[in-house]
Amino acid sequence: MINIPKGTKDVLPSEAYKWHFVENTARRIAALYGLREIRTPTFEHTELFLRGVGDTTDIVNKEMYTFLDKGERSITLKPEGTAGVVRAFIENGLAGGVLPLKMYYLTPVFRYERPQAGRLREHHQFGVEIFGGKGPETDAEVILLARDYIRALGVEGVELNLNSIGCKHCRPRFNEALREYLRPHLSEMCPTCNARFEKNPLRILDCKEEACAAINAGAPRAEEYLCDECREHFEKLKSILNACGVRYTIDPKLVRGLDYYSKTVFEFVSTAIGSQGTVLGGGRYDTLIENLGGPSVPAVGFGSGIERMLLVLENTGKSVPAEPPLTAYVAGLDEEGRRAAFALANELRQAGISADVDHASRSVKAQFKYAGKIGARFVVVIGADELASGEYTVKDMQASASERIARENVAAYLRERI
């Protein structure tokens, strides 16, 4: 037997309704905010992620699924959603349309890492990107959308962490202050932090190694080095969130795991999935579009793992609403009855009523048993008596009651009761 690859998971029919709940909720909340869906390829040219995500990130250094195709081109399965959306924005000339452009996506992403709670090598993301909004109102809208999405799922006990990491004008001063603080401690820090020291010291603050985290506790804060523009942006954002009743905590160590962020970064975190507690994270990335060859367009967005959100729901005991059961199972008692059952099932489906029929030449008893197993609300019985009289027997499986209904009225009868 060939087994499923490590770090992947089958979503079986008995579990798919949970995914539908999360995905449909994402689509509904996105629509409330005026977002439209974008779909980008599962794989892109590797250069897109090297330039977009950043070569100091774990994603690029350790986790990308990269291969040469038959044309000897380097191709990578997308490890995150934003870079592909930016590439599509540039390539399709969307900057020439109406801005801000507000988009969302539901996509698989691929990262070669140790599988952990809610994070597999193939996992799925709900992502939001808004291009063309420069002010803190756009940051606030993205955060409010994220909050409403989490609320609509019924997830509780999630906290918002917030920070500003500055822009290309003020971050160099902060980076230099970080280097001055960290330089005497490099011998005590992990190899990854040492590798990041010169190229991107900001990423050192994201290290989870115990020794590094202890050293980072005394590091300078980005907020102390913000330029006037970044400081004003952050203060206005906080005032908008306060006015909307959004609770948050300023976390000076929050930098996110991707190099393209600037100014605002945020995470919604939960204790329901252990140490890997982020269920949704994002921020502003005003230079990414330009860095990838496009015009200078500001942008802000977030990504949220669907598997992680499902894990939070499970670990907090939240039940996901079940999908509506099959309305009608149509049971034919003999050859002629089976033909009539197929015809009626077809008519019910055309009328928007879910229906199923026998595909295994079962006895009437076995058909009733099967209808019970698949959760059919009604069983319509068609035998010789029913065909002769033109009235079909309709059994309500919940009430254990039966009625004889004229064939032409069966659809209307069922619609009134669902």
Short description, anyone?
By secondary structure, the protein is an alpha+beta fold. Helices cover 37% and strands 22% of the residues.
In words, what does this structure look like?
The protein has 418 residues and is of the alpha+beta class. The chain has 2 domains: 16-170 and 226-315, Bira Bifunctional Protein, Domain 2 (BirA Bifunctional Protein, domain 2); 328-416, Anticodon-binding domain (Rossmann fold, 3-Layer(aba) Sandwich), CATH 3.40.50. Helix content is 37%, strand content 22%. The protein contains 15 helices and 16 strands. It has helices spanning 16-32, 46-52, 58-63, 82-91, 136-152, 171-182, 191-199, 210-216, 228-243, 288-291, 306-315, 335-350, 364-373, 384-389, 410-416, and strands spanning 36-37, 43-45, 65-68, 74-77, 101-110, 122-131, 158-164, 249-250, 262-270, 278-284, 299-305, 328-332, 355-357, 378-382, 391-396, 401-406. An 8-stranded mixed beta sheet has the order 1-5-6-11-10-9-7-8. A hairpin with a 5-residue loop joins strand 3 (65-68) and strand 4. The longest helix has 17 residues, at 16-32. It is elongated. The mean pLDDT is 92.
